[in-house]
Amino acid sequence: YVELVKMGAELSFLDVGGGLAVDYDGSKTDFRGSMNYDIKEYAYDIVAGIQEACEKANVPPPTIVSESGWSIAAYQSVLIFDALGVDHVDFEDPPEPSPDGHRILREFYETWKGIQPKNVQESWHDAQQALEEARSLFKFGYLGLRELARAEHLFWSCCDKIRGSMRRLKYVPEELNAIEELMGSIYYCNFSLFQSAPDIWAMDHLFPFMPIHRLNEEPTVRARLADVTCDSDGIVDHFIDVEEVKHSLDLHPVEPGQPYLLGMFLGGAYQEILGDLHNLFGDTNAVHVRLEDSGYSVANVIKGDAIDEVLRYLQYDPEEMVERVRKQAERALNQGRMTLPQLRTFMRHYEDSLRGYTYLSSDD
């Protein structure tokens, strides 16, 4: 800027670009999900540097322009979604192997039986070794499929018992934290990672996740979050922790018949615009909230994509689809495979579905 002005360029603005970070994990460090400075320091360093250069060259200072997109937009959006179901394993005590059963099963059972708080680390090593040996024996034909299943049952029973013993320890060896990750639940949630948080999939970005209610209850479940797409990449298994990253989130047990809502915060920077229609999950419902001195007001409510809208994006004609289905249904009626009330109900449900939300709703 200084050199161009001295050469005669009539410049009055200086664009310092972007790069202002967002403290996603709250640690105020140089970790990749944080920032070890604040906005005031950032602004001071830029202004001071420009001012010093201009004064030395006797050049009038410019109007400074920044493009801090992440820092401006990140705070403007919260994604709220509900948990649809939970995948977890309930463990029962393993049956004692018969005296003439395979040696590895008898030894595995003794490992499980002998687990105590004072030997959890040794028991973890023994369980890992026994499972590895059982799989090797199966691979070479020395252990049957039924016996391998019993060995794996014993392994998970050992993990469950070790985890229970760990909770009574003042100090837990770091390697045993892997057990919590192995045994964590999966919460299936009503959102698409590829539509609403593509940076998690694309660049392992860290966003704050947490329940938005039941905050006066202790979360007792460790879980990963899976979306509603069919893709195995549609899972969130990296979460913010006090030290680096953890692979499960502390959640509450889902109560039957009761909604359980979670939020993904600081998602305003480019997530919606980068999202795509993977598995034909469209834009979500949106509520624009304006903060006011007296509280807040709802400025706009924008409905998310309906199924027929998404189909039109892909050059399908919903009206033609309805007509085709109607003709097939009438053919079934004429052949006696469907009654008239059934036809009417079927067509009503089909047409209502096309007008419905691409995500699961309480009416589904």
Question: Could you characterize what this model shows?
Answer:
This protein has 364 residues and is α+β, with helices and mostly antiparallel strands. The chain has helices at residues 2-6, 39-57, 69-73, 103-113, 120-139, 145-166, 177-182, 193-196, 198-203, 271-274, 307-313, 318-334, 340-354, and strands at 13-15, 63-65, 78-87, 185-189, 209-211, 221-226, 235-236, 239-240, 245-246, 249-251, 261-265, 286-292, 295-302. The strands form four sheets. Strands 3, 4, 5, 6, 7, 10 and 11 form a seven-stranded mixed sheet that branches. A two-stranded parallel ribbon has the order 1-2. Strands 8-9 form a two-stranded antiparallel ribbon. 19% of the residues are buried.
What are the SSEs and their pairings?
Blueprint: H1 2-6, E1 13-15, H2 39-57, E2 63-65, H3 69-73, E3 78-87, H4 103-113, H5 120-139, H6 145-166, H7 177-182, E4 185-189, H8 193-196, H9 198-203, E5 209-211, E6 221-226, E7 235-236, E8 239-240, E9 245-246, E10 249-251, E11 261-265, H10 271-274, E12 286-292, E13 295-302, H11 307-313, H12 318-334, H13 340-354
Parallel strand pairs: 1-2, 4-6
Antiparallel strand pairs: 3-4, 3-11, 5-11, 6-7, 6-10, 8-9, 12-13
Helix pairs in contact: 4-5, 4-6, 5-6, 12-13
> What structural class do you assign from the helix and strand content?
alpha+beta
CATH class of the largest domain reads: Mainly Beta
Number of strands: 13
Domain count: the total is 4
Beta-strand content: 15-25%
Helix count? Answer: 13
For the termini, the CA-CA separation is 60 Å
Whole-angstrom Rg = 29 Å
- What's the mean pLDDT score? 93
Low-confidence parts, pLDDT < 50 over ≥5 residues? Answer: none
Question: What is the chain-wise order of helices and strands?
Answer: HEHEHEHHHHEHHEEEEEEEHEEHHH
